[in-house]
Design a protein that fits this description.
By secondary structure, the chain is an all-alpha fold. Helices cover 57% and strands 2% of the residues. The protein has helices at residues 23-42, 47-50, 62-75, 77-93, 96-115, 129-147, 150-171; strands at 121-122, 125-126. It is elongated.
Length: 203
Amino acid sequence: MSAPVPPAAPTSVGSAPSPPPGVGALMLIAGRLKEYASGVARQGKPWAEVVDRNAFSKPGNLAEATSRLRKNANYFKVNYLIVMLLCTAFTFVLHPSSLLVLALLAGSWIYVFLMRTTPLVISGRTLSEREKLIGMSAISFITIFFLTSVGTVFFSALSISIALIALHGAFREPDNLFIDEGETQQGFMNIFAVPAVPATVST
């Protein structure tokens, strides 16, 4: 009679390596920013309507230009915001040194607040979250506006964007646009306000 065959030893399955500390939070933030950006972009008007050549004319006076700008800023606010972002991005691409400075600053913020797991100690003193926030904000402000040309590049891009938006808003006739007159009272800065998504009522 043959000897019984011993049972095979169970094979251990290696668990998947856990992501580095902070990566999960960073991916969560990136996902939410992507969803937010997609939601904002969907609220924009068709670009064919923005650049409709038949809808442009010279305003009769300053009051008419201001009225047009206010109405167009309310109607095309998402498109105007996209123009500002694209203009800013293009300007920084033309200045790679400033873009590198921004990347280094962004990387330092991510490391200090997301990637680093041990407390930050300077001269034997552990810094609190509030102190780290104040310190990083001060370093970023000094770097952007005093040590590098990042601030100048940013304000140049902002000035170009505002000039383009002002020209479009003053020369684009808003007569054929469906505009809520109550919202136009919010003014030009209303382009930064994202319209609220209406809630759906379940039946």
